[in-house]
Structures are given as C-alpha cells and as structure tokens.
Amino acid sequence: MAKESFDCIIIGSGPGGYVAAIRAAQLGMSVAVVEKDKIGGRCLNYACIPAKAVLRSADLMSEISHAGEFGITVGKPEVDFAAVNARREEVIGTLVGGVEMLMKKNNVEMISGSASLTGPKSVSVDGRELEASQAIILATGSVARSIPGASFGGAVIGTEEAWALEALPKRMAVVGSGASGSEIASAYARFGVEVDLFEALDRVLPSEDKDISRLVEKGFKAQGISVHTSTLVSGIESGGSSVTFEYGDEKGEADWLVIAAGRSADVESLGLGAAGLELDEQGLIAVDGHLRSSVEGIYAIGDLVHGPALAHKASEEGIIAAEAIAGENPHPLDYEDIPRATFCTPNVASFGLTEEQAKEQGFDVTVGKVPYGAVGAGTVYGDRSGLVKIVGDRKYGELLGAHIVGSKATDLIQELVNTKMLEGGYPEVARTIHGHPTMSEALMEAARAADGWLVHG
C-alpha cells in the first residue's frame, strides 16, 4: 500500500496540536492531524474546559449565597448537578464544533486512530501509512500519574474523572493541592461536598508565592475545606462505593479519592524508538528553542517537553514549531514569563519569580503589596481580601514577577505580563492611568508600593 504524503503530520489535536495544524496550513503546508480520541484532546474534552464550566457553576452558587450582602434577597440556592453536567457537555460540544470548523476551513485532514512512528518522517495509523515530506509534530499531551502505593480504579480517580462525576458525593478526598487539586476542592466544597485536601509539602499551591498560598488556604478553610499540609496519604483501599485511606496517625474515608499529584508525558504508544528518539531523565522529549528534537524532522510540543504544563504554552509552542518548519525564525518562548492561572476561589494568577526565588538569584529585590481593599473596587464588588504582589529589581525597575489572589486575578495578571513583554517595568505601571473604580487600580498601587510611593496604603 502506497504511503499518503503530507507536508506536516501532527499527532494529537489538543490545544498544541490543533493550533499547530492551523498555523502550518496558513503557511501553505498540507497538514494531517491524527487523533486517537476526540478532537480538541484532553484539555477541551476532559480537563481545562470541563473544569472551568463546573467551576463557573460553583462561582454562581457562591455569588447567590452572598446576595444578601448586596441587598438582594433570594432563597437558599440548590445544586441541580445533572443540569451542571448538561451545561458542561454543551460547552464542550460548542467548542469542539468550533475546532472542527477551523480545521475544515484550513483544509486540515483529520485522521482518527492511534499513531505510531515507524521512522523519522513516517507514521502508521491503524495500518494506514503516512509520510511527512517536511516534519512531524508530536503533541499527545499527558496522562495522570498516581502516588506511591496507589493505583487508579474503583473509587480512586484522576482529575479528569473528578470533573465528570454523575452525581454529587457526600465526601471527597483530594490528594495534591496544585492547580488541579485546588480547583476540584474549591468547586465541590462550594457545592456542599465535605472535602479533605491533602498536600505533602508545607502549603497549598506550593509553587506559588508564600503570601499567596497563605491567603488561598484561608479562603479554602472559609469554604469548609479541611486542609492537611505536610501530610502524606497511604494505605488507600478502594471498596465498591467508597475508599479508605490513612494520613498521619488517622484514618479517613470518602466516596471518591481524587489523585491530583501530577502528570506524565503520553508517549507509550508513539513508538519513539523506531524514530530514534529517547526521553530525558524527567521522561520528556528534549527540544531546542524551536521545538526541534534530536531527530531531524521531528518536533515536540506541550506536555511532552520542558516548561509548565499549560494549554496556552502548548498552543504557542505549536505556532513556533509550525513557523520553524516553514523556514521562519520565530522567537523562542521565555517560559518564566508565561502566565499561570488557577481558577479556584479565590482566583490565583502569577508569572515570573516569587520573592524567595528573586532573592536566591541575587536581585536587589523590591516588593509592592496591596490588598484589594486598598482600592475602591475591592469594597464596591465585595472582595477586600484579595492581594496584588509585585516583585521587582530595584536597580533597573524590572518586573521580575507578579502574584495575585482574589477576584479576576486570572484576567488581571495579563497587564503585568504584557508590560514586561513590551519592556516596561513597575515604574511604568505605577504612572499609567487606570480606570476608577476598577480592580486594575490595585496593580497600579502595588507598582507604586514597589517604587516606594504607595498612595492608598
């Protein structure tokens, strides 16, 4: 059987793969995308988008519960979880349809099946032989990783299954308080589920700045989440309708135990060896700034390579890879300045260095911290407890990092990212007029604090 030829073959249709396909097609390449499951990959169908759809329902639950503080009297809200799930599926369906339309519009051929490399520029898809005249892009994402002494099955589930529960449980245990675990705990607690959140390290969201973690933990406890830091979970035994486990000297039981302890690159079925590719000590594919692997003609993006496992990072890498294949010279990513967003309540967003990291790297550090309550909008909109923290280099006025916890943090962070990317610093933010009354004024005030002349504080 003759091989079908394309300029570029992409394995995986998640936020990295489908964006790479569209960009490659825009640059004049014939493109095929191989997907073994559903178009849009895990992010669109099982993770990012379903999570945010459920979290939005939880947000509304919280807002309605506090309506009385704003002079609005309503009855006690109740959760129709079947309707929450129906809306989640509607959101997924709408966005999947949008991606399918974009693929057709750009003449990208979708091929359903499991792909395996048979050489540096050849792919087999369930017996169908494909050849790439220019390059192959690997974009298969990641799979859930368990914890020592535990395996998935029964009432022990991963984060993707947690967002697709058919009914609200009474009790849930979440192991791991990174972004995914924190989002799950925050959503279900606000739906009235008894939630225990376990973290092996000494604070929730341990990769975030310490000041931010402290406020998040306070917010979690206010939602009724039982937070257990510096705590390992062991002795997990899944029964027919519940799961038992041990933590410290105590025993626990829950309807579901969610393991949110990280993910591993999804490469098991790719046949990397046939193409001469090997994984590094972290289980990732080594690439250069243009996402080229050690094998000519093979590129890898997203969760398969170094850097934060974020959908928007994968999408940008897909664009860079496509442009590099087309002979352009795209600017490599600065991974430190990719915004990080966690959609729990309170929202958390950040980029760059924490205060501790900046000091460790020898910068002359200045810090500007301003609570939301310092600006009018914080009081008007009912969130005085949020915080903006800017970490800067005093010598040059450079923005080394920014960290926000509170309402709309995931939107607010972008201004500071853009400022740095456009070679501005915190003094420029401090002297840029911001609309009043808006939460964005807290960014301006934090920048003024870093610059030594806080007005509202």
TrEMBL record:
<feature type="domain" description="Pyridine nucleotide-disulphide oxidoreductase dimerisation">
    <location>
        <begin position="338"/>
        <end position="447"/>
    </location>
</feature>
<dbReference type="GO" id="GO:0050660">
    <property type="term" value="F:flavin adenine dinucleotide binding"/>
</dbReference>
<feature type="domain" description="FAD/NAD(P)-binding">
    <location>
        <begin position="6"/>
        <end position="318"/>
    </location>
</feature>
<dbReference type="Pfam" id="PF02852">
    <property type="entry name" value="Pyr_redox_dim"/>
</dbReference>
<keyword id="KW-0285">Flavoprotein</keyword>
<dbReference type="InterPro" id="IPR023753">
    <property type="entry name" value="FAD/NAD-binding_dom"/>
</dbReference>
<dbReference type="GO" id="GO:0005737">
    <property type="term" value="C:cytoplasm"/>
</dbReference>
<dbReference type="InterPro" id="IPR036188">
    <property type="entry name" value="FAD/NAD-bd_sf"/>
</dbReference>
<dbReference type="GO" id="GO:0004148">
    <property type="term" value="F:dihydrolipoyl dehydrogenase (NADH) activity"/>
</dbReference>
<protein>
    <submittedName>
        <fullName>Unannotated protein</fullName>
    </submittedName>
</protein>
<keyword id="KW-0274">FAD</keyword>
<dbReference type="InterPro" id="IPR001100">
    <property type="entry name" value="Pyr_nuc-diS_OxRdtase"/>
</dbReference>
<dbReference type="InterPro" id="IPR006258">
    <property type="entry name" value="Lipoamide_DH"/>
</dbReference>
<dbReference type="GO" id="GO:0006103">
    <property type="term" value="P:2-oxoglutarate metabolic process"/>
</dbReference>
<dbReference type="Pfam" id="PF07992">
    <property type="entry name" value="Pyr_redox_2"/>
</dbReference>
<dbReference type="InterPro" id="IPR004099">
    <property type="entry name" value="Pyr_nucl-diS_OxRdtase_dimer"/>
</dbReference>
<keyword id="KW-0520">NAD</keyword>
<dbReference type="InterPro" id="IPR050151">
    <property type="entry name" value="Class-I_Pyr_Nuc-Dis_Oxidored"/>
</dbReference>
<keyword id="KW-0560">Oxidoreductase</keyword>
<comment type="similarity">
    <text>Belongs to the class-I pyridine nucleotide-disulfide oxidoreductase family.</text>
</comment>
<dbReference type="InterPro" id="IPR016156">
    <property type="entry name" value="FAD/NAD-linked_Rdtase_dimer_sf"/>
</dbReference>
